[in-house]
Design a protein that fits this description.
Helices cover 40% and strands 15% of the residues. The chain has 164 residues and is an alpha/beta fold. The chain has a domain of 105 residues: 3-Layer(aba) Sandwich (Glutaredoxin). Helix 2 packs parallel to helix 5. It is globular and about 35 Å long. The N and C termini lie far apart (66 Å).
Length: 164
């Protein structure tokens, strides 16, 4: 009886240590935090950096997404529609779909403006994807008129609050 209790105890301790090691690996570490100046962003299919600056009193919302990630796509579409309605938010949307046909079809289905959307043709192999650690999940950044990060992972509800 005591041997079996010791065995169960050893298994429990080992599994706890193992789960803690995985927990540390899965924790997201942000490269940028509120107050940081957002770096210049150049995509594979462009030679010029994306213009992320908005007029005074306005915001820029930079949203990373892909059609294969339903949550990021849904959030991007909702935020884009809010930005179009408000007039105080410049939306910059970056898709990491490898195929242009999928990117265009997703844009059309979601009712996104071509002027606001950009396509990172290298997908998950791009420098931008690696720099922002998007393998840990797609995110967005709300920037002020000077290009400083105001908030991360803004939901549609959060955006409405910022606009008030």
């Amino acid at each position: 009886m005591i041997k079996s209790v010791k065995g169960v105890f050893v298994v429990l301790v080992f599994s706890s240590l193992l789960s803690l090691s995985f927990e540390k690996e899965s924790m997201t570490t942000e490269r940028l935090v509120p107050g940081d100046k957002f770096p210049e962003l150049v995509l594979c299919d462009t030679e010029q950096p994306l213009n992320l600056l908005a007029a005074d009193g306005q915001y820029t919302l930079l949203s990373f997404w892909a059609s294969y990630d339903a949550a990021s796509r849904e959030k991007n579409a909702a935020l884009s529609h809010l930005a179009q309605q408000s007039g105080r938010v410049k939306m910059v949307s970056v898709s990491f779909d490898r195929y242009a046909s999928i990117y265009r079809a997703s844009m059309k289905q979601d009712g996104l403006s071509e002027a606001d959307c950009h396509h990172e043709t290298a997908g998950s192999d791009s420098e931008t994807f690696r720099y922002f650690r998007l393998e840990q999940g797609f995110r967005n950044y709300l920037l002020d008129g000077e290009g400083r990060v105001v908030a991360l992972n803004v939901s549609p509800k959060d955006l409405v609050s910022y606009l008030r």
